[in-house]
Specification:
459 residues, Rossmann fold, seven-stranded mixed β-sheet, four-stranded mixed β-sheet, 15 helices, 37% helix, methyltransferase activity, transferase, Methyltransferase domain-containing protein, methyltransferase, SAM-dependent_MTases_sf
């Protein structure tokens, strides 16, 4: 019997699976399949393959929170927070600094009612609830939700729900209990959770849910985002730490392979700008640098976004009335004096400040040094709109929204690294193999590979 005759009935079985849009036999005996778009869609509801990716992270974090190896106290459970180069827990004082900076960012928007999507172990809930009229947190991990409910924090409620479920009845009931019947949050918070999202489409769906949920005007804060434009820098640092003797070609190959295998979402601010541009409400965006003192991956390669919804942005050149200036350095005057001079004519955005964590350019400064030099001033430390390896400063802080778009076209690397493609490449053949074994138990399933949109088998 020919290989083709043997494979054909199996191809038919595979092609009939509801997650498959098409299947055909390859000359090498493999079955090549195209996923059905609805299986990986984020809207109107997550497709089954995307849902499996979300379930994977829910299981991972539920196990991590049950294990609780990083739990110091009720309000400082750092389970899961480990350095990616060593696998060791991140320094506790660094994590306290990380928390303080996030709390400062949230409270700078003066919220009264916060809905946090992906609240984890409650690191922010414990620090925010007493300073609000109400707080509602959601998470996919039952262990986290159950523990937070038992903590009995006043003015709070916790719901088991995924990030895209902000509009569900369970979340609405929790908000009715804490905020009042029909009352909406004035701040929706997603902190250190987007790395578990499967795709940009899912990110867009969650952001639209958050913008639908928040008051008008209101704030959506997306914190601790992995920047796709710094992904090569990040993985080069990791691979050098793991194999410091590697030659440049070997290092480059290892970095590319590590990025391809990365299971976490990273994205540039442009991805968020594109997502919110299609929302029915006007949205302004500012991109904030992480300003912790220690030089770690959390400070170097991550950033925050603040979305202000419901205020129509000004348009046209100079319509915002904000002066733009390029940083001229501080060697002769010292950083605090030079900054104050540069910010004296406000509102102003001073850009092109080399980030000493990512650049050895003359006059480079760290985000922490900028924050310290700005102490007592109404100002914000930003990522430069044209280069994520640069910093900027906005004074007053609210004019940061005028810096959300690049002033000139630049090449900054990929807009996003989306893990869903690799997940589907791995998971769909497993599902289809089980499908064949169930419907044709006497058949040995052939190798199955997922093809991309051009019909080529993905590597």
């Amino acid at each position: 019997m020919s290989t083709e005759a043997t494979v054909d009935p199996v191809v038919a079985l595979v092609a009939g699976h509801p997650w498959v849009a098409g299947a055909h036999a390859a000359p090498d005996g493999r079955i090549l399949v195209r996923p059905r778009p609805s299986a990986t869609a984020a809207r109107p509801v997550p497709g089954p393959l995307l849902h499996e990716c979300l379930d994977h992270w829910a299981e991972v974090y539920d196990w991590v929170y049950q294990d609780a190896q990083g739990r110091h106290t009720d309000d400082l459970d750092l389970s899961g927070w480990r350095a990616s180069d060593t696998g060791l827990p991140l320094p506790t004082e660094h994590m306290r600094d990380w928390l303080d900076r996030t709390v400062d960012l949230v409270l700078s928007r003066r919220p009264r009612r916060v809905l946090e999507l992906g609240c984890g172990t409650g690191l922010l809930a414990h620090r925010l609830h007493a300073r609000l009229d109400g707080y509602v947190g959601t998470d996919v991990a039952p262990a986290a939700v159950d523990r937070l409910r038992r903590a009995g924090l006043p003015g709070t409620a916790f719901v088991r729900a995924a990030a895209h479920e902000a509009g569900t009845a369970d979340v609405r009931r929790a908000m009715d209990t804490v905020f009042g019947a029909g009352v909406r949050p004035d701040c929706v918070l997603l902190n250190s959770v987007t790395q578990c999202f499967p795709s940009l489409d899912y990110l867009a769906a969650v952001l639209h849910e958050a913008l639908d949920a928040v008051t008008d005007p209101g704030t959506v804060i997306v914190g601790d985002i992995r920047h796709s434009g710094l992904l090569t820098d990040h993985f080069t640092w990791l691979e050098r730490a793991r194999s410091p003797e590697s030659d440049p070609d070997t290092l480059d190959a290892r970095v590319k392979a590590a990025i391809a295998a990365d299971e976490e979402l990273s994205f540039a601010p442009e991805a968020v700008a594109a997502a919110v541009a299609t929302h029915s409400r006007p949205v302004r965006m500012s991109v904030r640098a992480r300003t912790m003192e220690l030089n770690t991956e959390l400070t170097r390669y991550r950033y925050d976004i603040v979305l202000h919804a419901g205020v129509r942005p000004r348009t046209g050149p100079g319509a915002d009335g904000v002066r733009r200036a390029r940083w001229s350095g501080h060697q002769s005057k010292g950083l605090p004096v030079a900054l104050r001079a540069a910010l004296s004519e406000r509102p102003v955005i001073v850009s092109a400040i080399p980030n000493a964590l990512l650049s050895d350019a003359p006059g480079a400064v760290t985000p922490f040094a900028l924050r310290r030099a700005l102490h007592g001033l109404d100002a914000a430390v930003l990522l430069d709109a044209d280069d994520p390896r640069m910093l900027a400063v906005a004074a007053p802080a609210d004019c940061a929204y005028a810096a959300s778009a690049p002033t000139t076209p630049v090449v900054r690397g990929p807009v996003a690294h989306e893990p869903l493609t690799a997940f589907v490449r791995r998971r769909l053949p497993e599902v289809l193999g089980d499908h064949i074994r169930r419907l044709a138990p006497d058949t040995t399933p052939p190798r199955i590979a997922v093809v991309d949109g051009t019909g080529e088998a993905t590597p």
